[in-house]
Automatic annotation (TrEMBL):
Record InterPro entries: Ketoacyl_synth_N, Thiolase-like
Domain Beta-ketoacyl synthase-like N-terminal: from-to ranges: 48-193
Coiled-coil regions listed: none
Gene3D superfamilies listed in its UniProt record: 3.40.47.10
Protein name: Beta-ketoacyl synthase-like N-terminal domain-containing protein
């Protein structure tokens, strides 16, 4: 990458499947069309755009209990598996979220401070950071390892590094999911996040013809080479905490050969992408 210096080994993978969801763009196909054509002339999402993901992987009772963050994580995870024609039950997974579910965290704090005995067992159950990973393993029947990662604005980059490291050490395929929802209450003043956003990549150690091929390494960030967060998807979902992942999805959608995302502590994750 121009304007940066590699500080780690290069890790590689093929991208077998992609999932995406945000309000108005409920699929990767919709996101790619948005990147190619731009927003509608009225600036509004399609009238039939779903207000929230469906999380069809879950049984109806579990679906009703699952918060929006879990729903969007499972929606994009299943979409990536379907695109790759891979059985979700067989896959190791990495779930990356900046905050988990801040709306539930705000509810928990407010209730504990005012009426602690009225706290909802279901919402308590959904408050843990690995809730989405847990729902995924239940819904998919997956017995493979599932990892939950949080690293503030570097959460997706660190999740991607974890997935690539698993591939480098012998795992044949890893599902990576990044997601975040809206913050509410006092937490919204210090941990800002708006809307609902999720993206997933099904990464494989042995790329097949036609798959994008990714090579990534940690690099020193340079002031004169800022990360591009001005693309169409980044503008659309600018308020969401998972915004840092979007330069990679924009590069994939537009078939660009380079992307960079923040990796924390003055580092970036620089990527080269080849397409057949």
């Amino acid at each position: 990458m121009i304007g940066s210096r590699t500080t780690s080994p290069v890790l590689s993978a093929g991208i077998a499947g992609i999932g995406f969801w945000t309000r108005g763009l409920p699929s990767w196909a919709a996101a790619r069309a948005y990147l190619a054509d731009g927003p509608p002339s009225n600036g509004m999402p399609p009238a039939d755009a779903p207000a929230k993901p469906s999380a069809q992987l879950l049984a109806p009772n579990e679906r009703r209990r699952a918060p929006d963050t879990v729903a969007v994580a499972l929606e994009v995870a299943l979409a990536a598996c379907t695109a790759a024609r891979r059985d979700p039950a067989t896959l190791s997974s990495v779930f990356a979220s900046t905050h988990g579910d801040l709306a539930i965290t705000d509810y928990m704090c407010e209730t504990l401070a005012s009426e602690p005995r009225t706290i909802s067992p279901t919402r308590f159950h959904n408050s843990v950071h690995n809730a989405a990973a847990g729902y995924w393993t239940i819904g998919a029947g997956a017995m493979a390892p599932a990892t939950a990662i949080s690293a503030y604005d570097a959460s997706f980059a660190q999740g991607l590094l974890e997935a690539l490291a698993q591939l480098a050490t012998g795992t044949d395929a890893v599902l990576l999911v990044g997601y975040d929802g809206a913050a509410t209450g006092p937490l919204g003043q210090i941990s800002r996040s708006e809307g609902l956003l999720g993206g997933a990549l099904l990464l494989v150690a042995d790329p097949q013809p036609g798959m994008p091929r990714l090579r990534a390494s940690i690099q020193e960030a340079r002031v004169n080479a800022p990360i591009d967060t001005e693309g169409a998807l980044s503008r659309l979902a600018a308020g969401n905490a998972m915004l840092p992942m979007l330069p990679l999805f924009e590069a994939l959608g537009l078939l660009r050969p380079h992307a960079a995302i923040t990796a924390g502590s003055g580092k970036i994750l620089g990527m080269e992408i080849a397409y057949d």
